[in-house]
Specification:
Blueprint lengths: L4 E5 L4 H13 L4 E7 L3 H17 L3 E7 L4 H13 L8 E4 L5 H12 L4 E6 L4 E2 L5 E4 L3 E2 L13 E6 L4 H11 L3 E7 L6 H4 L10 E7 L4 H14 L4 E6 L4 H12 L4 E4 L2 E4 L4 E2 L6 E6 L4
Parallel strand pairs: 1-2, 1-4, 2-3, 4-5, 9-10, 9-12, 10-11, 12-13
Antiparallel strand pairs: 5-16, 6-15, 7-14, 8-13
């Protein structure tokens, strides 16, 4: 496959290192945009050193951009400056979303959409997630810059939440936005003990909850389910938050492109477990993300 530019975010998990090996072996990479978060430099030292050795050995050009997880506005400005000088016009772009925060996935898609009609994506599942907590100590939810939606004060707010393994984020969103109704999209299947770990809704008895099951690993299928629900609640204000598998960030952004009146919200965590995941499932998921609004 002819993907010449790779966009990836430095991570401390095994799947960053092993996933990079697979990409360099199977894709024709000539240039890499490596994004790293200063907040986690100490956790990433070993993987960064190994990564730079590999790409140097392969004579691949690397552009490095440093962000700070705790300063979303500065991150937006940094990426805006980078993409203002971005000269890649070919659609031969591969974005490895495996270790990219969902907020940064959406931000990158915003800037890539200005230049490209489509890009390629790849995602590596781990062999196993940590049995303990994954993230904790969250900040308040925040709407993505330039993606905060068009809100009509005469309409109710319906909150769409794609749930994951950190249930405190789910309840934080509900408490923060005080919606009239919540649509909870839960991942199907029992992979990674999903049925036990993805089940922490602290339901307010006065709040109307609708539950929908879908498969986030099927980007096109989950995009269609989300879009059908957006159409059903088109007379309401809608905010969507993705807490499930990273691929759900693609489904939510595709729906934003089709329905720019909705808002995209993210709940940042202050702490990540340094044993977040173990190993890699080499049966990776890849596809094409089309920026057309259809």
């Amino acid at each position: 496959m002819k993907n010449k530019t790779l966009i990836t975010v430095l991570g401390w998990e095994d799947r960053f290192s092993f996933g990079t090996d697979i990409i360099l072996k199977e894709y024709n990479i000539e240039r890499i945009l490596l994004i790293s978060f200063q907040d986690y430099n100490s956790m990433n030292l070993e993987n960064k050193s190994n990564f730079l050795k590999k790409v140097k050995k392969s004579n691949i050009k690397v552009d490095q951009v440093e962000l700070n997880y705790s300063t979303s506005i500065n991150n937006w400005k940094t990426l805006d400056l980078f993409f203002s000088k971005y000269c890649e016009t070919s659609d031969n772009i591969l974005i490895n979303i495996t270790t990219i925060p969902r907020e940064t996935i959406w931000t990158l898609l915003f800037f890539l959409k200005k230049v490209h009609s489509r890009i390629n994506y790849i995602y590596f599942k781990p062999a196993k997630y940590c049995d303990d907590w994954l993230t904790k100590n969250h900040k308040n939810p925040r709407l993505l810059f330039k993606h905060s939606g068009l809100f009509d004060l005469s309409k109710n707010l319906v909150l769409f939440i794609i749930t994951g393994f950190d249930n405190s984020r789910l309840n934080s969103l509900i408490e923060y936005y005080e919606p009239s109704k919540v649509i909870v999209f839960s991942q199907t299947g029992n992979q990674f003990d999903n049925e036990e770990r993805n089940n922490g809704l602290n339901i307010n008895s006065l709040l109307e909850i609708e539950k929908v099951e879908f498969n986030s690993y099927d980007v096109d299928g989950s995009t269609n389910i989300l879009n059908d629900k957006i159409e059903e609640y088109k007379n309401s204000n809608i905010i969507i938050s993705s807490q499930g598998p990273k691929l759900s960030s693609l489904s939510t952004y595709k729906n934003y492109i089709m329905n720019e009146e909705i808002g995209l919200s993210y709940v940042p965590a202050r702490e990540f477990n340094d044993k977040y995941s173990i190993g890699i499932d080499e049966d990776y998921i890849s596809g094409v993300f089309d920026f057309k609004a259809d």
